[in-house]
Write a structure and sequence with these properties.
heterodimer, A: alpha/beta, Rossmann fold, about 15% strand, elongated, B: alpha/beta, 4-stranded parallel β-sheet, 21 helices
Chain lengths: ~260, ~450
């Protein structure tokens, strides 16, 4: 039996949606909506949210939760030629509760990386699931080829790309030290916000090291199709790498 | 002092009072991350048994960070009312728990100034969630700035109109919506995205003008760093409340860029230049786990460190203090059960310390917590008598990127518990047609009233 479909509530543009019953001034409500992305002019059912606002909130939170607790589609990283490794975390649960373990590799894993990957390259690219797996699954196929082409065109040597499961940002330091790369980039899933489950960040550092603190890193964030599109972010990252190579510095030491 | 016991034939021995406190804590991911939690459920209970047998004096005499090396310890120890302390010094912690559950408010108030943070946290560790509610409910701690918060029968809300770029019109859109739901009696307070003197001044003035124009009895606040606010105050900004995040150790306070001397100075400056009536005009935020995250936990558990924040806050006779209970993330509080527990503990400990305690009932997207967990804590803590909670548009803070209690939730908490906004504020809401007989009217929820 052919079924009609229930309206897609996620398709509604919340930025203009006024749900207050009989407002004193409807036009004023529309103006208010334009001033903020906050959930205002939502109306009420008694003291509670209306059904549509409630379900939309739940849908927006569901996207965020699923982003955290899902896994990167490994066929995506395989096709792009990434080598796959894992931090000391044994599962997602441990990853969420033990940031210290998500920053480290075992000796065996480090040996494997050292054997399989070229050393002393100009740029080492890493992808890590972080707090959002879809951020990598969705954005990596767009951004990685761009980075590869853009960096090679500038004459830089590239290492073998590495995918890290259960990754925190600081895994880049250990990999950089193991391979003695000049610039290391990690593309990593950001902690999702409501309705934004696909946002990715790129952290970059010149001679990335476990002995330096977070201020060694330069970051491009909010990379996703509704934020900074991956193609645009790719171009920006290539340009930043150029500046880091020239200045032999990154983070707060890189004066842009 | 006995630090050893047996349960079902197995012996449990602890090295120190600090270890007993840590292992007696209810399960928290942050204590595991710190490597100080009980290894299993049985060891946790054994530690509680040993804790119940220690005396109030044992806990006072063994602060988790030594007096000589930590100014938060000194603030708390030096603030103890020795006469009140003597009344309970030799009481076992088990008896002290029963005293809190069995006594009336007056009897508890008679010893409250004799307690240190370790004693207060110790009592919390011996209580179930319902014990915490029963004890908290008796502890009435009002405070007065322009208006009075925390009176029996009231539940107030901080209107939190955050905006990612601090756009004045964007912020005010959320203020209009919030007032239309009778939120904002505790204060109207913005977490700024831009921590500058100019921005702090601009938002404070905007709130002041709005409150004057619509005759809203409340207090304004911009939660920039205390040093930014001090500068704004010196330049003449209208500031009813001064804010700062605080921690339970000197190391962690220093990572927040503060010290006792700095907050003393801020307090004196406010006394001289504030725009509010007083006598209470400081606002502090805390949250379990912040000490570990700044390497200042001194190998103590996150509950006892949280209690120390309250001891520090007490020095400044605050108008309001709230734990931002679920903001820190799953490596400190893993799921809904841990957040609910922590919220009830923090509220209890704050009230037992004698500070006017509120709670930011909240969670982040990477915790195993849901909207239902948030609402559960909201209802329980309202019943426990919390002074105030946050109010954000439909529970979604678009600047801090977490979920907190929404404007609707505040209205519903009042409806479910029969509590009312602060009296002057409710009267004004009635005049504006937003409330009637303690409930929202049909006209409520319409921000265009103020446009």
């Amino acid at each position: 039996m052919e079924q009609e479909m229930v309206r897609d509530i996620s398709a509604l543009d919340l930025s203009t949606y006024v749900a207050v019953d009989d407002p004193k001034d409807k036009t004023a409500c529309e103006v208010i909506k334009k001033k903020t992305a906050a959930r205002v002019c939502v109306g009420k059912a008694g003291s509670r949210l209306k059904t549509e606002s409630y379900l939309r909130f739940r849908a927006d939170h569901a996207i965020a939760q699923d982003a955290v607790w899902s896994y990167v589609d490994e066929s995506v990283v395989d096709e792009l030629g990434f080598m796959k490794v894992q931090t000391l975390c044994k599962d997602k649960d441990e990853y969420i509760t033990r940031p210290d373990l998500g920053r480290k590799f075992s000796e065996e894993t480090l040996e494997k990386i050292k054997e399989a990957c070229p050393h002393h390259v100009d740029v080492q690219i890493i992808a890590g699931d972080g707090l959002s797996s879809p951020a990598i699954t969705v954005n990596l196929p767009d951004i990685y080829p761009m980075l590869e082409d853009g960096l090679k065109a500038k004459g830089y040597t590239l290492g073998s790309p590495i995918f890290v499961k259960y990754a925190r940002v600081a895994t880049m330091d250990q990999i950089s030290e193991a391979l003695d790369a000049k610039v290391t980039i990690i593309l990593i899933g950001e902690r999702p916000g409501l309705a934004t489950g696909e946002s990715m960040s790129a952290y970059m550092a010149y001679e990335s090291s476990t002995k330096k603190n977070e201020s060694q890193r330069t970051v491009v964030s909010n990379i996703h199709k509704k934020g900074m599109p991956p193609v645009e972010a790719g171009a920006q990252i290539v340009e930043l790498v150029g500046k880091m190579m020239e200045a032999k510095a990154s983070g707060i030491d890189l004066h842009l | 002092m006995k630090l050893k016991t047996q349960l079902f034939g197995k012996t449990y021995e602890f090295k120190s009072v600090k270890e007993v406190l840590a292992k007696a804590n209810e399960e928290k991911s942050g204590d595991k991350l710190a490597g100080i939690a009980a290894v299993d459920a049985s060891e946790r209970v054994a530690a509680k048994v040993v804790l119940a047998d220690l005396t109030v004096g044992d806990l006072r005499n063994h602060p988790v960070v030594p007096y000589e090396s930590d100014e938060v310890t000194r603030v708390i120890q030096d603030g103890v009312n020795e006469e009140q302390y003597k009344k309970i010094e030799s009481m076992s912690m088990g008896d002290f728990r029963e005293f809190l559950l069995d006594s009336d408010a007056k009897e508890i108030e008679g010893v409250r100034d004799g307690l240190t943070a370790e004693v207060i946290a110790g009592a919390a560790k011996l209580m179930s969630n319902m014990d915490l509610v029963v004890a908290s409910k008796k502890l009435i701690v009002p405070a007065t700035c322009n208006t009075t918060i925390g009176l029996p029968g009231t539940l107030a809300a901080r209107l939190q109109p955050n905006h990612p770029t601090d756009s004045v019109e964007g912020v005010m859109a959320s203020v209009y919506e919030g007032i239309a739901y009778a939120n904002g009696d505790a204060l109207i307070g913005l977490n700024p995205a831009i921590d500058t003197v100019e921005n702090t001044d601009r938002i404070l003035k905007t709130f002041r003008e709005f409150m004057d124009k619509w005759e809203i009895p409340s207090q304004n606040c911009v939660l920039s760093h205390v040093t930014t606010q001090m500068e704004a105050l010196k330049q003449g900004s209208p500031m009813d409340l001064m804010f700062q995040s605080i921690a339970g150790s000197e190391i962690s306070n220093s990572s927040f860029g503060i010290s006792t001397a700095l907050i003393d100075e801020a307090y004196e400056l406010m006394k001289e230049k504030k725009s509010s009536a007083g006598p209470n005009f400081m606002y502090f935020e805390t949250g379990q786990g912040s000490e570990l995250s700044s390497d200042g936990h001194n190998d103590a558990d996150q509950l006892v460190m949280e209690a120390r924040c309250y001891g520090f806050a007490k020095r400044y006779h605050p108008y309001c203090v709230n734990t931002v209970v679920g903001f820190i993330g799953p490596e400190y509080l893993y799921d809904g059960a841990q957040v609910i527990r922590a919220g009830l503990e923090d509220h209890f400990m704050g009230k037992l310390t004698g500070i006017p305690m509120g709670c930011d009932v909240c969670y982040t997207n990477h915790m195993k917590a849901s909207q239902n967990d948030l609402e559960n804590l909201a209802m329980i803590i309202a019943e426990a008598g919390v002074n105030y909670v946050m109010g954000v548009p439909a529970g979604d803070d678009i600047m801090l990127m977490y979920q907190s209690s929404g404007y609707h939730d505040v209205a519903a908490m009042r409806e479910v518990t029969g509590k009312r906004p602060m009296a002057e504020f409710e009267k004004r809401m009635e005049e504006l047609g937003i409330m009637e007989n303690g409930k929202l009217t049909k006209l409520a929820g319409d921000p265009s009233i103020f446009a």
